[in-house]
Amino acid sequence: MKLKLLTATALILGLSTFATAKGNVYSPDHGIICDKKSGFCVDSEGISMAFTEEYLGKKAADKFRKMTEGVHMDMSSYTLSNGLSCDSKKRICKKSKWDDKADKHWTNILFGK
Fold first, then answer.
1. Extents of the domains making up the chain
2. How many CB atoms lie within 10 A of CB 109?
3. Is-contact 72 29, C-beta < 8 A?
4. Does residue 112 come out as left (phi exceeding 0), alpha (psi in the -120 to 50 range) or beta?
5. How many C-beta atoms surround the C-beta of residue 97 within 10 A?
6. CA pair distance 34, 15, nearest whole angstrom
7. How far, in Å, CA of 78 to CA of 62, rounded?
8. Neighbours of 46 (CB within 10 A)
């Protein structure tokens, strides 16, 4: 009985950890993807400080601004903490920057059909 309870508890804890990690990248609205872990949000044009502040808060937006201050960055191409790689100029998201095929789900959320 104790072994079953211990196993069930471990399973629940493992699933909740996975759900939390999986939940770092989400879409609060069509055309927007946010990444809590990386601390920024994007729209079809690229990384958006306005949406970062709106959905992740002023503290997250200020932290991202400070981190990228003085750094020349292409804000239209980025990789999220779950490996999802998007390019706003090409209007595509892929499961990783090494994939050739579009991730239909995230491409549709960000850029539409």
1. 25-111
2. 17
3. no
4. left
5. 13
6. 22
7. 19
8. 17
Per-residue pLDDT tens digits for 68-107? 888 888 899 999 999 999 999 999 999 998 998 999 999 9
The pairing of strands 85-87 and 32-35 is unpaired
Q: What is the per-residue pLDDT across 3-53, written as a single tens digit (0 to 9) for each?
A: 343 333 333 333 332 333 357 999 999 999 999 999 999 999 999 999 999
In this prediction, residue 22 carries a pLDDT of 52
Burial class (CB in 10 A: 0-12, 13-18, 19+), 72: exposed
3-state SS string for the chain: CHHHHHHHHHHHHHHHHHHHHHCCEEEEECCEEEECCCCEEEECCEEEHHHHHHHHCHHHHHHHHHHHCCCCCCCCEEECCCCCEEECCCCEEECCCCCCCCCHHHHHHHHCC
